[in-house]
UniProtKB/TrEMBL annotation:
Alphabetical list of Pfam families matching this protein: HATPase_c
Molecular function in Gene Ontology: ATP binding; protein histidine kinase activity
Top-level taxonomic group: Bacteria
EC number of this enzyme: 2.7.13.3
Catalytic activity: ATP + protein L-histidine = ADP + protein N-phospho-L-histidine
Keywords: ATP-binding, Kinase, Nucleotide-binding, Transferase, Two-component regulatory system
InterPro entries recorded: HATPase_C_sf, HATPase_dom, His_kinase_dom, Sig_transdc_His_kin-like_C
Designated name of the protein: histidine kinase
GO biological process: phosphorelay signal transduction system
């Protein structure tokens, strides 16, 4: 939800007429669930892209962001043996890719998709 909330904030701050958020899910090699969340907002500047998962880092004005949302997302993904990555182009939007294994360790219960 933090990623989607950030995408909404980015779209509200940009002046594009057609604003969109796309969420795609897929299974890769019967081993990994992938979730892509992308927007067509203003993108993340290259000079801050490497900091976005750091605790307390925010590009939002004082009082509007704690800088914890993406840090928490990163920690949750690590705890579940997953990965999170971001690609972004200035003025072209941002895409987050979340990858989670279907099974973790020996004897782990598989994720059941309905």
């Amino acid at each position: 939800m933090n990623i989607i909330s950030n995408a909404i904030d980015a779209l509200l701050a940009c002046d594009k007429k057609k604003k969109q958020i796309i969420i795609q899910t897929s299974i890769s090699n019967n081993e990994t669930i992938e979730i892509k969340i992308s927007d067509n907002g203003s993108g993340i500047p290259d000079e801050v892209k490497h900091k976005i998962f750091n605790p307390f880092f925010t590009t939002k004005p004082v009082g509007q962001g704690t800088g914890l949302g993406l840090s928490i997302c990163y920690q949750i993904m690590e705890k579940h043996h997953g990965k999170i990555s971001v690609s972004s182009q200035p003025r072209a939007g941002t895409e987050f890719l979340l990858s989670l294994p279907l099974k973790i360790g020996v004897g782990a219960a598989p994720v059941i998709l309905k």
